[in-house]
Amino acid sequence: MTMLNRVVRMRKYIRLWCQTESEYVKLYSTCDEWKQIEYMIFILQSFHRLTQIGFVSHRSTLHKVWNIYINLYNHLKDKLKELKNKRATWKVNIRESIQDEIDKLQKYYSFTFDAGETLYNIATILDSTKKTEIYKDNSEWESINLENYTKKLKIIILNIIKNMNEIADIKMHSQHRYQSLKTN
Length: 184
Prior knowledge:
This protein is mostly helical. Helix content is 74%, strand content 0%. The protein folds into two domains: 1-48; 49-183, no CATH class. The chain starts with a helix and ends with a helix.
């Protein structure tokens, strides 16, 4: 996307360069090609922004994964609807590419299920800005059993507490042994 933005900014200079030699004139993009470039920038802006959220942060972003997927998916679906009845070849090509991207996104989104499903759900529930609201706000997730994940989270927390108590008991016994060995 950065390269496309740079090309648009340099459009005037590219035109001037193409005019320096007769064989370069045919290299200059047509008005339709410039529209394609600008439309691709428009489509890619959401991907760029959401990628920056996911990869630039030095903090954990696991709890943001579903929101990022949903935003990208909705963005692509909206663009697909906009291009649905378009007949210009370049618009048809972009529409087909968008459908391919939706398919790819769905493939990667499916990786958040199965073993990772519990992890992603618990990370989302633990996000202080989301908690369980994300499930209430999204009709597509009504089928997800929120109670199931809150129960799993409680079990995990109880196991952590149990393990911490066991560790504390081991430390206490070790200290008593050390003290008894020390006094003998």
